[in-house]
Amino acid sequence: MNPITPIINGMKITLKHMFMKPVTLQYPTERPKVAARYRGLHGLKVSHSRAKCVACYLCPTVCPAKCITVEAGEDANHDKYASVYEIDMLRCIFCGYCVEACPVDALKMTGEFELANYRREDFIYSKDRLLEK
Ligand code: SF4
Ligand code: SF4
Q1: Could you tell me if residue 13 is inside a domain?
Q2: Tens digits of residue pLDDT in 77-129
Q3: How many domains, in total, are found in the chain?
Q4: How far are the Cα atoms of 3, 56, 83 from residue 69, in angstroms, in the given order?
Q5: Residue 6, number of CB atoms within 10 A of its CB
Q6: Is residue 5 situated within a structural domain?
Q7: pTM confidence score
Q8: Has residue 18 been placed in a domain?
C-alpha cells in the first residue's frame, strides 16, 4: 500500500467532520429536548386548587434514598393532606419509585434537569416549590 494512502484517508475523515452539522449544543442558549419519559426534578400535581397528595406515606416508604419527608394534616372536612412535603434533591437518585408508588397519581417527574445552588438547604424542595413544577 502506498504510505500516503492512510494519511489521505485520515484527512478525508477529518474534512468530512469539519463540515458536518455540530452534534454539541450551545448550552444554555440552546436547550436540549428531553425525552417524554425523562426523569427530571419532581413536581406535585394539583386537583381542585390543592395538592393531590393525600399523605399516605407510600412514597417516603418506597424511596431507597429516604429523601422524602411527609407530614399529614387534616382539613375541615377531615380529609388528610400533606401539611409538609419535602424532597431532598441532593439525596434523590431519580429512580422514579415514588411516582410509581403513588396511589393517587399526585407526583410527577418533570423534564427539568438543572439542579445548581449555593447552599445545601436550597436543594430541599418544599411543597410550594414542588407545586410550581
Ligand atoms: S426518585 Fe427515587 S430517590 Fe428520588 S425521591 Fe423518588 S423514590 Fe426517592
Ligand atoms: S404516595 Fe402520593 S399520596 Fe402518598 S404521600 Fe406520596 S405523593 Fe402523597
Answers
A1: no
A2: 999 999 999 999 999 999 999 999 999 999 999 999 999 999 999 999 999 99
A3: 1
A4: 68, 12, 10
A5: 10
A6: no
A7: 0.83
A8: no
Contacts of residue 92, Cβ cutoff 8 Å, sequence gap at least 6: 42, 65, 67
Per the structure, the complete domain to which residue 31 belongs is given by 25-131
Residue 114: give its domain's CATH number.
Answer: 3.30.70.3270
Residue with CA closest to ligand 1 atom 4: 92
Residue whose CA is at the smallest distance from ligand 1 atom 6 = 98
Q: Whose CA is nearest to atom 2 of ligand 1?
A: 95
Please tell me the distance between residue 85's alpha carbon and the centre of ligand 2 in angstroms. Answer: 9
Q: Tell me whether residue 1 is in a domain.
A: no
Q: Ligand 2 centroid to 71 CA: how many Å? A: 11
| Nearest ligand to residue 93 Cα | 1
- Is 65 near ligand 1, meaning CB less than 6 Å away? yes
Do the bridges between strand 68-74 and strand 42-44 make them parallel or antiparallel, or are there none, so unpaired? unpaired
